[in-house]
Amino acid sequence: MLLYAMFDDLFQILQSISSYSVPLLVTLAVSSLLRALVFAPTTPTKEIPLARHASLNILSWLVPQFDWLQNGFKHIHDAFNRNPNEILRLPSRDRTQIVLPPRFLDEIKDLPRSVMDVGKATSDFFVGNWTTMDVDIFGHATVDAVSAQYISRMNHQVAPSLNEASFAFSQAFSECKDWTTVTLPSTILPLVAQTVARTVVGPELCRERDWIYSVIEYSQNVFMSAVYLKLGPQILRPLISMLMPQTYRIRQHRRRIHQLASPLVKQALQTKGAEGVYHKLKTSVDWLVEVSPEGEATPEMIIHRLTGISFGATHTTSAHIMNCILDLANDFDTYAGPLREEIDTVLDADGTQITNAHLSKMWKLDSFMKESQRFHPISALSVNRTVVQPYRLSSGTVLPQGAHISFAGGPMSQSDEYFKNAKSFDGFRFERMRRNPSQDHHGLQFTSTYEGTLHFGHGRQTCPGRFLGSAISKIVLIKLLQRYDFRLAPGQSRPEDMTFMDMVVPHPECQVMFKDRDS
């Protein structure tokens, strides 16, 4: 039913890079030659040191690029650990990438989008002009709609998410009377995609197999297109885009998404402004229609932004849930008992259906999720911004227009500067810190941020969808813990994450064994 090619394709790319395949070498050789001929090696950031030493000589440029593609995550960690107070430039091919040290965080975090823009940074990361993930998809209306729905009115999102997760769960997980091996990516991703869709497009569409399939396939083809486009210089992007099969798949899935969502969007546009409608706003479709300015309240733009919301919520939440499951399975006896006791205590207090208030009382579960995220973030970088206009730091360094700036959120979260025994996994670390009256409680919840946990960003442009991701993650983990025991295969250790440039994802073939508790 589902092609879960996103992580697997990425794995194949790494294998081809590792073996230095001839076609890939030829592509990069031509690209490097064009880059050397077309682009001058001078840069306004040339005084900022590279995280990994590299030469701009044509021949010696190839190996560092392979190295960055394969080991960028490690190089960011190594560079931060060598000197956490140094401004670094990353050897990225497609844009100027600058990593700022923590001392600049307070200076950057609350700058407006007119100066530094997270939406532009996300679009640039996905080479948005060529993959349809352009700046409009992350426009003000998208942020306003997500904030209104998933921050201001999060209490109203838990019940429909719970109902849909229960249904999706029954479809994804069968009876496991004996120990049964489950491949996580192909199981968790469609479950999460369907659950997310319940509050994005509503009950009429969220169980439509074409919707789930198209959203997932659109997302993974955008991701892979961005990877391929980053391999070549900008001058070759029209040619690369034309030759990639992913380009045509993106268009195909966007057409299907538009066909499916169009009736809902048109109906919402027709009822906009009607008496009493505001209080009936239930889905992201409704909220996008409500907050979009007149020139942007068109079916095309609303559906365009729906794809961005679905993309962001589905894949990050799926990856996080998989990491939590793997961490639980890796030490199930230590964590399952206390987590189940907490779940039973909170839910048995009044016997009602799970609410947002219930979820907020589960401090141990919240802590475990945050610790899992601390060890397995989606990227080594966070608080990403594109510099919209040149900006002079307090140190005097000028960040040029168009540069991508970020902070080393991954290495920071593993630093002894912020945590005792930072390199040791401690699932209830944050729960104990919250209960300590002498501890500063700022930033200790899963959805909150501070210098030690920047994985949702920080400041004015922190991810507004993190509350939905948190709720869905907790709902899925609660259901798994209530029904199953789980473990890694005998003799197996937790599978290593797969890294690519600054990114990190669960291994595409990661598996866990489940067994019904009643069996």
TrEMBL record:
Gene3D superfamilies: Cytochrome P450. Belongs to the cytochrome P450 family. This is Cytochrome P450. It comes from Karstenula rhodostoma CBS 690.94. InterPro entries: Cyt_P450, Cyt_P450_sf. The keyword S-adenosyl-L-methionine does not apply. Its cofactor is heme. One of its GO terms (molecular function) is oxidoreductase activity, acting on paired donors, with incorporation or reduction of molecular oxygen. Keywords: Iron, Metal-binding, Oxidoreductase. The lineage of its organism: Eukaryota, Fungi, Dikarya, Ascomycota, Pezizomycotina.
